[in-house]
Amino acid sequence: MAKTLRKLLVLSTPVGPLGTGLGGGVELTLFNMAQVLRERGYSLTVLAPQGSKLPPLEIEPLPGAMQDTAQSQGRQTPVTLPPQSVLGAMCERARQRQSQVDAIINFAYDWLPFYLTPFFEIPIFHFVSMGSLNEAMDEAVRKAVQSHPQRVTFYTRTQAETFGIDNVQGLYIPSGLDLSLYDFCDRPGTQLAWVGRIAPEKGLEDALAAISQTGDEMTVWGVMQCPDYWDEIRQRHPHANVRYGGFLPTEALQKALGQCRGLVMTSKWVEAFGNVAIEALACGVPVVSYCRGGPAEIVRDGETGWLVEPDSVPALVAGIEKLPQLSRSACRQQAETEYSLAAMGDRLEQWLSHP
Ligand code: HBI
């Protein structure tokens, strides 16, 4: 019987402190993974940039300069490490702590932890949080899959395929949710929602273009990562009836999101997963999304949402106008069937059982 790995050291994303939203989807994935594995007898310690707080996560904060976000780099951009790098500090701390734990789970979408994997005495499992963005990183991911295919996982098959990897033993780990935190709302108001980091790769301008045509009111929730971009697209779409609702923690977000008649998703890149899609479904909110990346694997077209031609505003408009055809209880039902914490916990344990 393979040694069960009970004591885990987790490397968080080094682009921002946990709990600020700058860590994107990894924040929710990490939070839920910690909760479900702790319930199953695992102990987790998370190495993360100082300033991180995400109770009840046990976090060891590390000082240092944040890593540039991979999505702001080009495909040929060389690997970079700033002076006093927090990523370097996290890897050094992991090296010091490796004798006290059974395995490391790496969430950093960065070359260094992949490169260092064979230098460690204990297994490093890699959870790849985004699709292919950069040649040097692609090499590192493919190399890790070649040497230990069962120690690398992705949210979705679509995401793995962007690396030219078509089967990592078929094990993908879609995010799960603590569904008790999400209330089903079957009597929504009239407005639409858009949720996510406000940054160019998320394509918010297309949602503004669409509501300029449908006349819908829309609220945007998420961390204001690129204020200039927000200002610029508002000027480009002066008739869009949109307001910024701020970055809300889960409890407040699900309460506000549940009141919406639909969630609009407009990612310009191959979204690895799309946590906001399953959060919306959990509240009974159907999703209109470009048929691209993770949301294309999550949304059941015509049943819990509409998957439309990518980058087509007219297609987005048509999807928004067809929202009333969808059943909100079917949305909640799909979240319960496919995206519960238990389902995520089972997949995580299956993944970790291959040291
Ligand atoms: N960029 N370099 C780098 N490293 C990360 O870990 C990283 C990132 N960009 C975005 C990101 N992580 C998170 O938002 C993930 O949840 C996607």
From TrEMBL:
E.C. number: 2.4.-.-
Leading EC class: transferase
Keywords in alphabetical order: Glycosyltransferase, Transferase
Pfam families assigned to the protein according to its UniProt record, in alphabetical order: Glycos_transf_1 (PF00534)
Spans through the membrane: none
Glycosyl transferase family domain boundaries: 193-327
Domain of life: Bacteria
Gene Ontology molecular function: glycosyltransferase activity
Keyword Glycosyltransferase: yes
Stated name of the protein: Glycosyltransferase
